[in-house]
Amino acid sequence: MSNASSQKMTPLIDCLVVIGVGLIGGSLAVNLKKSGMVKRVVGVGRNEQSLVRGIQLGVLDEYNLDMASAVKDADLVVIAAPVLSTRSVLEQIKDTLPGHAIVTDVGSAKATVVDAIEAVFGHVPENFVLGHPIAGSERSGIEAAQIKLFKKHNVILTPLPSTSKQALETVRALWNSTGANVLEMTVEHHDQVLAVTSHLPHLIAYSLVDTLARQDSNLEIFRYAAGGFRDFTRIASSNPVMWHDIFIANRKSVLESLERFSAGLEELKIALEHGDSQKMLGIFTRAKAARDHFTKILAHRAYVEPMKKNNVVFQAGQSHAISGRIRVPGDKSISHRSIMLGAIAEGNTTITGFLEGEDSLATLQAFRDMGVVIEGPEQGEVKVYGVGLHGLSKPPGALYLGNSGTSMRLLSGLLSAQAFDVELTGDASLSGRPMQRVIDPLSRMGAEILSNGGKPPLIMKGNRQLKGISYEMPVASAQVKSCLLLAGLYARGETRVTEPAPTRDHTERMLSGFGYDLTVRQLDNISREVRLKAGGVLKGTRIDVPADISSAAFFLVAASITPGSDLILEHVGVNPTRIGVINILREMGAHIELQNERNVGGEPVADIRVRYAPLKGIDIPEDQVPLAIDEFPVLFVAAACASGRTVLTGAEELRVKESDRIQTMADGLIALGVDARPTDDGMIINGGSIGSATVDSHGDHRIAMAFAVAALRASGKVQILDCANVATSFPNFVQLANGVGMNISIQG
Ligand code: S3P
């Protein structure tokens, strides 16, 4: 028995009259009746046999063939007949409808229903609440009615300013009780949205099946038709009268969407005629990405803003030892850059080991939106069809970059010199991050950028001629450096960037890998200068993305703090500008060996063996800070497990990462009973024992994973809130971690 039938509710409605007891009317009636939301259901229709069947099936209590008399006792009338019959239905019930009765409908086109009501009543009475459940199937008739048809489906209500609040709330409560998700929209918006998402696909399915059915060989076609035909044409079995009415009722919006579709089809036809593979692949890869994204939304796994991000909770605990051999996902920084440089190169770029995390996928999608054909990612393989330095096109809307600061800062450089305006937006965390650090130097180069007080969204104005500048970065930031180098590809004269301390140099290495000339000069012991000029060409290439040392870092610490551990991390990028975490852990006493060191496409790579070792607290050398900037959350965990005091200074940048990583980590560590003291630019931690608590990651992927590592040494369970963003950099973290002996479960 379903919940609806087992838990009786207090009736909201005494007498429900359903006019048109088919799939939708019947499903609503049976649901409300079985749940006890209504006391008595009266069915009205033309086909007596099907009404009798409705009683036998328990959908109806009684039936009436005469609409006018049926509604006399009604408290609620649901019109579930084909849309174009609404006017005739209303004419028949107008005189007998009690004044207090609420009237609602389920039609797929709303403006036409409003017109019908106005034609019959002269206005829309306040008790009329129009609605539309986005549910159904190709089956029709009362036999197809299902008690759970609306569960987790959207129901759109389209109240007018004159609609009574009480009537609206009653209809909302009824739909809520079916398990539906109730939304509100204006009539016009509803009709436009449904024209595209529902009406057009039905129209095309009918047309395709009819066209095939009229061919001489139709028997052959249907006999051998496979899954594709079945999936695509299922909805051509829907009720023809109902759909005829919907198309006519929403004719204007349907025609508009049909026109856009015809233009798209024509474009594809021309591409096919000319054997234009790139054009075709562009259409197919964009469509696949959009459909895959939709599938994620359906499975509630999408990264888009409206998702409730804070409902993924990790529960992590102790473990005996961390051991095995794993390869963590591809390097995030290199993955971003491989798409960016591949897109503006001449010719194709093939990428392997690409990180399929939400951040790098946001970059990939941004370039698709700017007209670049990108195949994949398929198990880390991506093929980018470069469009050249001047081949990007204006995207159809704002580029949504999710949680990714790297995407926004690097793209702002690249896009400050394009021939079009473009807006860059992101999620709540990214929208709070400082962008002035790129706006200032880019503006000096001649870019025009509008921002929200130095924060996203950014609007990059097009058609600006940039000029090269000489820029001494006030903060050691690879993102700022890379942003300016990308802008420099388009600037008149030379662009020169000096960094106060070495930062990751993937952009420089990769530009060289694409055959672009640039000069890197060591100025003194610490600072470096990078120079480049416009006028060169990037040539498509192959890129093998090594595993991300920032993701490997969680396991370096996990194995270091868990007695008995012995773990190998394969094919990890060990670029000297990224190995601060290894240097710091070694200084704390960690047992880390690099094996099989090699060079892969200009980046040093090694397998890393890490074994348990008792750690001791240290003063972290400040020159290591930029080289380990993303690894401090988990290094703080190492410090909490070390004997003695660890002091970090010179790391104020941590306060403006995906969260304020000094405060967020200090709060969590203190909750776990660790002696941790945040300072303006770092933290002081006295190692000791770790307790059990609930900590909040504040949607920061690295904080969430760091606390899962801390749990290895906790006295009890550690519950970590707001972990969905782990998918930005390490989508299979929990699976890999549990595979080597960690103990993490996901709730929500
Ligand atoms: C990155 C640079 C660093 C780092 C970020 C990735 C990059 O940021 O924290 O995760 O790919 O260039 P900053 O340049 O702001 O230090």
CATH A-level architecture of the largest domain: Alpha-beta prism
Shape: globular
What's the name of the CATH homologous superfamily of the largest domain?
A: Enolpyruvate transferase domain
- Mean pLDDT, to the nearest integer, reads 94
Helical content stands at 25-40%
As a whole number of angstroms, the C-alpha radius of gyration is 31 Å
The beta-strand count equals 32
Largest sheet descriptor: 6 strands, parallel
Q: How many helices does DSSP assign?
A: 26
How many domain units?
A: 4
Task: Going across the biggest sheet, name each strand in turn.
Answer: 3-2-1-4-5-6
The ligands bound in this entry are: shikimate-3-phosphate
Indicate the proportion of strand residues: 15-25%
CATH topology of the largest domain: UDP-n-acetylglucosamine1-carboxyvinyl-transferase, Chain
Q: Helix- and strand-based class?
A: alpha/beta
Overview features:
748 residues, alpha/beta, Rossmann fold, 6-phosphogluconate dehydrogenase C-terminal fold, UDP-n-acetylglucosamine1-carboxyvinyl-transferase, Chain, 4 domains, four-stranded mixed β-sheet, 26 helices, 32 strands, globular, disordered N terminus, binds shikimate-3-phosphate
